[in-house]
Amino acid sequence: MLSRPHPPIGRDAADCPPFVSDCHVRIATELIGHTWDPVVLMALRYEPRRRGELLAAIGGISDKVLADALRRLLANGLVEHGYALTPLGRSLVDGPLTALAEWGVAHGDAVLAAQAA
């Protein structure tokens, strides 16, 4: 059985066919797919911070894991040296990450209850 080719990916997320490797949804989710990357981004939400300040502000992160996260965030254009959000990073923090955090506050107890069941 031959599969039909997917239409070209448009600028609208709704145009992204499922399971396409270069889908824009995949690009976006990869930016927050590492456990600590969204946490580091949110720690930079209000002001730039030095690496030592980030280590002190983020409980449970090791220096190596923080260094890896900062390297990824720099490579993706989300933070700049001196550890401040770029305009691209600001758009991710103020949009999807803030919405995800609000969802977590609203539904976190239900998720924890389901995990305990």
Description:
This protein starts with 23 loop residues before the first helix and ends with a helix. The protein is mainly α and 117 residues long. The longest helix has 30 residues, at 87-116. It has one domain (21-106): Orthogonal Bundle (Arc Repressor Mutant, subunit A), CATH 1.10.10. It contains 5 helices and 2 strands, in the order H-H-H-H-E-E-H. The protein is globular, with a radius of gyration of 17 Å. Strands 1-2 form a two-stranded antiparallel sheet.
Give the rounded overall mean pLDDT: 87
- Per CATH, the superfamily is Winged helix-like DNA-binding domain superfamily/Winged helix DNA-binding domain
The number of distinct β-strands equals 2
> How are the strands of the biggest sheet laid out side by side?
1-2
CATH architecture group name: Orthogonal Bundle
CATH topology: Arc Repressor Mutant, subunit A
Which bin fits the share of residues in helices? 55-70%
Shape summary: globular
Radius of gyration: 17 Å
Separate helix tally: 5
The major pleated sheet works out as: 2 strands, antiparallel
- Domain count: the total is 1
Helices and strands, in order, run as HHHHEEH
Strand content: under 5%
Oligomer classification: single chain
| CATH class bucket | Mainly Alpha
Distance separating the two termini: 42 Å
Low-confidence stretches: 1-10
Structural class: mainly alpha
